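tmp note - Collectin subfamily member 10
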Amino acid sequence: MSRLFRLFAFLSGFCYIFASPDVCTNSLIPGAKGDQGDDGEQGEEGKLGKNGPPGLAGVPGEPGLKGEIGPTGKMGPTGEKGDKGLKGFDGPVGLKGQTGATCDCGRYRKVVGQLDENVGKLRNAVRFVKNVLLGLKETEDRYYLLVKEPKKFRKASMNCKLRGGTLAMPKTNNINQLMADYINQAGLTRVYMGVQPQSKDTNGTGSYIYADSTPLREFAVWSQEELLYSTSSPATNVSCVELLNTGTWNKVECETPLFFICEFPKSRRRGRGGTAASTS
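out:
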């Protein structure tokens, strides 16, 4: 009995000791939460990843504005020489001259014949200079010179005046065709001519006139594109006229550099008997 009592007392004491919190001082109990530490340094940049798949195609943009007119292109090669034209009709017979005085002119006939031959050669030389070296075209009363120096309309008009003439004015169908053939023979497609816009009147309308300020009257060879607008639409100071190698007229911006044709009257004089047309 006493043995059981001692065992019971031992067990009770043992349980009391182990149940006391003071005995478990070595157990891992978490402490209070500490302060937040400083941020670490930024790490190195990582490696570049693989390219992703291409995106969808965007919506097409609107078309841009029409660009300005480009500069005049280089002059093309000269065309082949054309066939010789047909012989013209004989002119009318002149009036009968007065009867000459009878004289012994036998010894002078040889000299006169030689002079006539020399005059003929001189005329041929002059014709060669005008038609070949200078490239002039001529009618009964006028010369026409193609100037192969691209200039704006106003400067082209001034250039012709400095030479003693004006921009060529095709006032008839024959002159218009002569100028068109002139352009073709030079291997060109268009040139300035003496047709320009007239200032607007009090009604707000305008028209075209020749370089000498005369009206176009009934002759005009507008192209199909310009035919509907040549008389109905008002002219402006920036809308000049060009002659095409087809013989038709077309509007063109006055600031466009183009070749041009000048005309010179044969009867005009300067000073004492000198001709006015300067083709240099």
